[in-house]
Amino acid sequence: MPKVKHVSAKDGDVIVLVGTMKGAFVLRSNESRKKWDVGGPYSIGAPVYAMAFDQRRGRRRLWWAQQSFQWGTVLCSSDDYGKTVTEPTTYSVKFPVESQLTLKNIWQIMPGRNDDPDTLYCGVEPAALFESHDAGETWSPVEGLLNHPHRPQWQPGGGGLCLHTIVPDAVNPKRMMIAISTAGAYRTDDGGATWQPRNNGVRAEFMPDKYPEFGQCVHKVVQHRDTPERLFLQNHWGLYRSDDGGNSWNDIANGVPSDFGFCMAAHPHDPETVYIVPIESDQYRCTPEGKLRVYRTRNAGKSWEPLTRGLPQKNAMETVLRDALATDTCDPAGVYFGTRSGKVYGSGDGGNSWRLVAEGLPAVVCVKAAWVGDDGIASPRKHRGTETKKVKSKSGKSRSGARKKVSAKTKTASRARAAR
Amino acid sequence: MPVTIRIPTYLASFAGGRNLLAIEGSPGTVSEALAMLWKDYPGLKDRIVDEQGAVRQHINIFVGDEAIRFADGLSTKIPADTEVLIVPAVSGG
Question: Is the pLDDT of residue A406 over 50?
Fold first, then answer.
């Protein structure tokens, strides 16, 4: 067994949580995000598909899902970055007997909105949403989705019938988007009582009807908290944007080498910036042309640019899975991703340049990032100064330190941030 | 007759650190023995059976040398002086 190391993080540090097929790791750096300590592995030998960091109400609590072929799946937690681990005596996330379902895996752990600081959500396999309103002590399934009339028609994808994406709306506490492989995106507007499919315009290449009401294999949906009506979606073939809360979707695969991919992450401050890692095809499932490239749009999908500085551009047959790309909330933003070959790359400048943060890990299935001490209410700029990034001026020359314009709309929406 | 149940090391941490557990009373079947086991050691239940009460797929339970999967399942009878063995099956990747 490997020797377990621990990291110590203080407010102002950045942590990256890495779930692998053989345990969980916690990476820590200071705000420079150049040198990293690696803590772990925790839950040694167990696939860890989901991790989260809850720092509401002053907590510094790690969550992760420990899966075992033998003993089932259990939510573990730690309030000291893994030094002390709580594995509950009885499992907290489990289906009621009358459902006739049994939990196979937990694919997502998502803290709720900031104005609901004791609420957390779990997305599980077989596809269901669980919620906790006591900071993770007790959990129950969201009945409206558990008993959804479409359930008998949902089909498992390659990873199983999993609810992998949870997007609590940034403004409306009654609204939430979830995504299921293979069922598509569903949205509730009444706090989970009812759920409507929201896949209009999203292609299902593998179905006779290419645009069914549901049944798409949505891989990831992201929302920027300042523009809650705008959502981005990485599909099993297809990149989409919605400007109406998911009611309809439009293709935005403009200039990417492949519109197949798994992961997607939103920039923490710029609502028009999103990151993806295109994959060649659903048959090959590796980065195109042997080049490991993150693609970034800064104009909400009108165009995408490859980000390659510091990433291998030869013989890089890598796969980045649906939950293995994340951003922190620093300014400039940190972006991180992990590969099935056990490497973790990070950028401390919004993706302009990358460095290898860790390697030799087991296959990475989950990456989450957090700025320790950011409760989501205080503006990062208040603590970090101006967000600086290289942008192209109208003359085409690069310049550094450009201060972003913050529109009135964004300012208004920022006030909603405190509620998220 | 008390029944002894042998459990693997991982589960021992939910049974006071012990691998060999004595179940008082006279359970006639594996199902009855497990019900008594859950009472004394509640942390074992969710790890051995799923929400529907079925033994998890990659766990084998033996009564003596006999795998209950190939006998009467949880209704398998426990003869006197026979140890019940709970072991993780060969699985993983």
Answer: no
